[in-house]
């Protein structure tokens, strides 16, 4: 498994693929789409399976929302708002605080929701984003992206690395027959890791279910290795999520909308 800083993903994928090892790699897949393409090429060349850990596809709350949308429970969806955030990860001087390495909250955190939106609603058409875009490392980050999808859906995605503590995820999904709402702070069980003297440098979302979504994604990977089906997320899906995050960062830098091709990362 590769659960290292994003800039190291491609070199480690190369080593594993050339060694004939199947690969579980944490999201973001790579820092750039170009690196993602090379990683996919290496996996195919050496005939190894490459799985990218977009765990939100396995979160029971998000899967329940997807199922209700597909069942038409809220009618035709026209607008979605997703918010995800927590403390600024990493200690001072960490790679997280360097846009060139991490892509900030946009690439490292919002990519979860960008992937889920494409998973549920299909291909995006364009994105307009705003972000702090700090020139130097800073102990906070914030970004907001508004996307229009080819089916007409409008989605707003907000990423926050500025909370004093904890981690929170919210979702509002509006259709012409109803609305879905989710707030992780309203979960029936709230878990908080015991504090340490220096304080945590990373917090991941928890949920009160019998089987962790992190375990579910590993089971999906293991089933794929044993020839039992295909995983929920492909390397091409993960590359498309990187492309969406890259486009959001480009939009934030230029102050203009960025359009996507008909299908991202063919």
How would you describe this structure in keywords?
266 residues; alpha+beta; Dihydrodipicolinate Reductase, domain 2; seven-stranded mixed β-sheet; two-stranded parallel sheet; 8 helices; 9 strands; globular
Order of helices and strands: HEHEHEHHHEEEEEHHE
Mean pLDDT: 90
N- and C-termini, Cα separation: 26 Å
What integer value in Å does the Rg equal? 18 Å
The parts where pLDDT drops under 50 for at least 5 residues are 188-197
Which structural category do the helix and sheet elements fall into?
A: alpha+beta
The proportion of residues forming helix, as a percent range, comes to 25-40%
Number of strands: 9
The name of the CATH topology of the domain at 56-209 and 235-259 is Dihydrodipicolinate Reductase, domain 2
Indicate the proportion of strand residues.
15-25%
| Largest sheet strand order | 8-7-3-6-5-4-9
Largest sheet: 7 strands, mixed
CATH superfamily of the domain at 56-209 and 235-259: Dihydrodipicolinate Reductase, domain 2
Given the C-alpha coordinates, what overall shape results? globular
CATH class of the domain at 56-209 and 235-259: Alpha Beta
In the CATH hierarchy, the architecture of the domain at 56-209 and 235-259 is: 2-Layer Sandwich
How many individual helices? 8
């Amino acid at each position: 498994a590769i659960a290292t800083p994003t800039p190291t993903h491609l070199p480690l994928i190369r080593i594993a693929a050339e060694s004939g090892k199947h690969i579980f790699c944490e999201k973001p897949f790579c820092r750039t789409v170009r690196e993602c393409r090379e990683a996919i090429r290496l996996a195919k060349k050496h005939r190894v399976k490459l799985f990218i850990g977009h765990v939100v596809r396995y979160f029971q709350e998000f899967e329940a929302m997807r199922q209700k949308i597909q069942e038409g429970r809220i009618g035709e969806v026209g607008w979605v708002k997703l918010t995800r955030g927590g403390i600024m990860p990493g200690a001072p001087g960490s790679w997280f605080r360097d846009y060139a390495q991490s892509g900030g909250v946009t690439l490292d955190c919002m990519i979860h929701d960008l992937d889920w939106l494409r998973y549920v609603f299909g291909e995006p058409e364009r994105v307009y984003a705003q972000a702090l875009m700090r020139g130097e490392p800073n102990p906070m980050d914030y970004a907001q992206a508004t996307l229009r999808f080819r089916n007409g859906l409008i989605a707003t995605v907000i990423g926050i690395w500025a909370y004093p503590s904890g981690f929170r995820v919210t979702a509002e999904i509006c259709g012409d027959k109803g609305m879905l709402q989710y707030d992780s702070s309203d979960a029936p069980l709230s878990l908080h890791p015991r504090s340490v003297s220096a304080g945590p440098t990373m917090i991941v979302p928890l949920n009160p279910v019998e089987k962790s979504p992190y375990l579910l994604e590993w089971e999906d990977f293991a089933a794929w290795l044993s020839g039992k089906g295909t995983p929920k997320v492909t390397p091409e899906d993960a590359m498309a999520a990187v492309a969406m995050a890259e486009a959001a960062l480009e939009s934030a830098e230029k102050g203009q909308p960025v359009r996507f091709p008909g299908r991202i990362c063919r």
